[in-house]
């Protein structure tokens, strides 16, 4: 619910979103934390430690595994290529090193989901880490309202779109909420 509200506010107050339609993908939902749902992060960390597992890779009983989240990301990522490029002919105007990029997608999701997404993008899609960012920072939980920006190079091969390159511009930025 908070992600939807955040996306709506961004679209209302950002001139580069004028005339755009929001698309909500049910696969990009909040990660299920099972018995820990609605609890505090420090309690989840304690559960992971008690189970002898690392955090944030820990899956509480009844929760969604990292692999389940990864599968959702994979499906969403590749289905989105067709959607973005079939309906997008506008020029964007994003700052932070991507001005002039022809197609933009704003994905608003939860920090735990972004943590898995960052790992997927680096490990599966072979994205290099941005300058000054190590794997610990890259794969950490994104702070509330944290921003990550990636640029994707997409080419059309036959009747499908294929990722030909990906770059991380920044990760877990939170200055906008200070």
Short description:
The protein is an alpha+beta fold and 178 residues long. The chain has helices spanning 2-13, 41-50, 66-87, 111-123, 135-138; strands at residues 147-157, 160-173.
What spatial form do the alpha-carbon principal axes imply?
globular
Number of helices: 5
* Total beta strand runs: 2
From the N-terminal CA to the C-terminal CA, the straight-line distance is 22 Å
Radius of gyration, in Å, reads 17 Å
Low-confidence stretches: 86-98
**Largest β-sheet summary:** 2 strands, antiparallel
Major beta sheet, strand line-up: 1-2
The pLDDT mean sits at 76
Instruction: Give the SSE order as H and E letters.
Output: HHHHHEE
Tell me the fraction of residues in β-strands, as a range.
Answer: 5-15%
How would you portray this structure in words?
With 178 residues, the protein is α+β, with helices and mostly antiparallel strands. It has a domain at 66-177. The protein has 5 helices and 2 strands. Strands 1-2 form a two-stranded antiparallel ribbon. A hairpin with a 2-residue loop joins strand 1 and strand 2. Mean pLDDT is 76; it is low at 86-98.
Spell out the key features of this protein.
178 residues, alpha+beta, 5 helices, 2 strands, fructose-2,6-bisphosphate 2-phosphatase activity, hydrolase, Fructose-2,6-bisphosphatase TIGAR A, Phosphoglycerate_Mutase, His_PPase_superfam
